[in-house]
């Protein structure tokens, strides 16, 4: 299982190519669609390329895998301590996995959300906190995979267009690997914390006078014209790393898969990756079902929602994206076809939520002592709608994928508590809930009397 025994399949026309034949933009030469990693020795998909079809089919033994993955939790080897490479049998993309570039990503906590569950009348509500990764977002799990692949292929430079988190992750992993990184960011439209990470980790950081979708277009040309390796989520190796939280969730549920997993949707790589992970697990006999995977978008950046509503997920119309959840401010998502397929295959849903609903949900997750960045909070906001509409039932188990750490966007949080985040008309219908969640910082004279007066008032309240 350790050799890089994989091939790439087009999600549009199903053409199969060997890894060495891949284009720099990771798109199919025939139809321009995205590619997906496939393992001929055990993947579900049919036709194999002649070069790989000659080998025997070796379906891994589920019991042995579960045991091995648990054993590795005791190991001191860096790749065993990684929550991505601990599962390396299911992502044999490297010739030398022991040389993977790792910051010990993954192995993130699964928290019970008791207060939110009570509010919604749900019996089992959990948050899988991918913001607890080394650079504070889920991007690390994909970056360790794709950047290790870039290094194995001899690249010196890697590049991405980003709403912030991908750039932070890429810059960190590139520096660990002594590689160089180039970051393209939409000027003024990402949080300072994420920008500061890219600088600190040593990336060449360019802010472009455009949005994320414009940065993607520019980067496509740069990649064509310079020897840089593309690390946006069109890179199918990213998604191989990003499928491992599905394995962690399964492990944490003792291989009894939860009923629902809810994910924020931006460029739509993550929902695609998790779907792939859960579907592969079932195919291999590691689990007996897949969860319904639902994707939640911001109302101002909702192209997948609109696509499923109006075109059954068969085509997509890009939108001019606008949301304060800047991580998902994306109007032309690359992986929309993969994500639509995952929602349809698993029986999940796609929802959209307003700016006020996002802000309120973020404050509610904060009150659980967990916190997350705004883009992650769309999951709870979307869950509320799904429960209200009867699409998720009281007795069903639900996992929210929290994709980023609360410290990723403290400007948003401070603006919320100051009352400067939302315009009056945006909060319509939620004024009471929002004002109950807002906290003021108090400026007091430096005396215990002053502090005790405040404490007393708080105790009485
Ligand atoms: N949540 C956070 C915190 C993100 O940073 C992103 C994407 C998403 C959700 C959406 O995930 O794109 O896989 O659907 N951020 C990218 C970036 C685009 O550049 O950091 P997706």
What small-molecule ligands were found? ligand F0G
End-to-end Cα distance: 61 Å
Biggest β-sheet strands, sense, barrel:
6 strands, mixed
**Major beta sheet, strand line-up:** 4-5-13-10-11-12
Fraction of residues in helix: 25-40%
Q: Note poorly predicted spans.
A: 46-51
Helices, by number, come to 18
Number of strands: 13
Strand content: 5-15%
* Radius of gyration over C-alpha positions, nearest whole angstrom: 22 Å
Structural class: alpha/beta
Q: Name the average pLDDT.
A: 95
Dominant shape: globular
Protein architecture, described:
With 461 residues, the chain is an alpha/beta fold. Helices cover 39% and strands 13% of the residues. It is built from 18 helices and 13 strands. The protein has helices spanning 50-53, 62-71, 78-81, 114-120, 139-152, 165-176, 192-200, 212-225, 236-242, 244-252, 269-283, 303-311, 336-346, 355-367, 374-388, 410-418, 431-437, 448-460; strands at residues 7-10, 16-17, 35-38, 110-112, 124-129, 157-161, 180-186, 204-208, 228-230, 260-264, 292-298, 350-353, 397-402. The strands form three sheets. Strands 4-5-13-10-11-12 form a six-stranded mixed beta sheet, sandwiched between helices. The protein has a four-stranded parallel beta sheet with strand order 8-7-6-9, with helices on both faces. Strands 2-1-3 form a three-stranded antiparallel beta sheet. Helix 5 packs across helix 9 (236-242), helix 6 packs parallel to helix 7 (192-200) and helix 11 (269-283) packs across helix 13 (336-346). The termini are far apart. Residues 46-51 have low confidence and may be disordered. Bound molecules: ligand F0G.
């Amino acid at each position: 299982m350790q050799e890089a025994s994989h091939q790439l399949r087009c999600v549009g026309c199903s053409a199969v190519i060997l890894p060495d034949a891949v284009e720099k933009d990771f798109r199919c030469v025939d139809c321009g669609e995205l590619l997906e990693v496939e393992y001929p020795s055990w993947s579900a998909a049919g036709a194999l390329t002649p070069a790989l079809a000659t080998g025997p089919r070796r379906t891994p033994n589920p019991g042995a895998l579960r045991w091995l993955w648990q054993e590795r939790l005791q190991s001191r080897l860096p790749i065993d301590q990684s929550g991505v490479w601990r599962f390396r049998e299911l992502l044999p993309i490297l010739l030398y996995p022991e040389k993977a570039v790792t910051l010990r990503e993954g192995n993130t906590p699964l928290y019970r959300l008791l207060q939110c569950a009570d509010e919604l009348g749900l019996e089992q509500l959990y948050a899988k906190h991918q913001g607890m990764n080394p650079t504070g977002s889920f991007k690390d799990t994909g970056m360790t995979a794709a950047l290790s692949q870039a290094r194995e292929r001899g690249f010196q430079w890697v590049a991405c267009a980003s709403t912030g988190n991908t750039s932070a992750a890429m810059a960190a992993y590139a520096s660990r690997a002594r590689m160089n990184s180039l970051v393209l960011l939409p000027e003024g439209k990402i949080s300072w914390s994420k920008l500061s990470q890219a600088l600190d980790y040593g990336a060449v950081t360019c802010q472009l006078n455009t949005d994320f979708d414009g940065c993607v277009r520019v980067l496509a040309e740069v990649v064509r014209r310079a020897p840089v390796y593309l690390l946006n989520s069109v890179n199918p190796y990213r998604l191989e790393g990003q499928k491992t939280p599905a394995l962690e969730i399964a492990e944490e549920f003792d291989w009894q898969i939860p009923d629902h997993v809810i994910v924020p949707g931006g460029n739509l790589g993550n929902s695609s990756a998790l779907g792939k992970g859960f579907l592969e697990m079932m195919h291999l006999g590691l689990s007996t079902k897949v969860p319904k995977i639902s994707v939640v978008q911001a109302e101002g950046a909702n192209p997948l929602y609109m696509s499923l509503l109006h075109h059954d997920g068969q085509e997509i119309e890009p939108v001019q994206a606008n949301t304060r959840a800047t991580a998902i401010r994306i109007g032309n998502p690359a992986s929309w076809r993969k994500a639509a397929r995952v929602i349809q295959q698993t029986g999940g849903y796609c929802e959209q939520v307003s700016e006020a609903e996002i802000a309120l949900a973020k404050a509610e997750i904060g009150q659980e002592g967990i916190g997350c960045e705004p883009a992650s909070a769309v999951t709870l906001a979307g869950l509320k709608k799904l429960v209200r509409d009867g699409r998720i039932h009281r007795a069903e188990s639900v996992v929210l994928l929290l994709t980023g750490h609360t410290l990723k966007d403290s400007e948003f949080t401070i603006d919320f508590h100051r009352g400067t985040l939302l315009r009056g008309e945006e909060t319509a219908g939620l004024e009471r809930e929002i004002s109950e969640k807002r906290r003021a910082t108090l400026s007091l004279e430096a005396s215990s009397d002053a502090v005790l007066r405040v404490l007393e008032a708080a105790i009485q309240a």
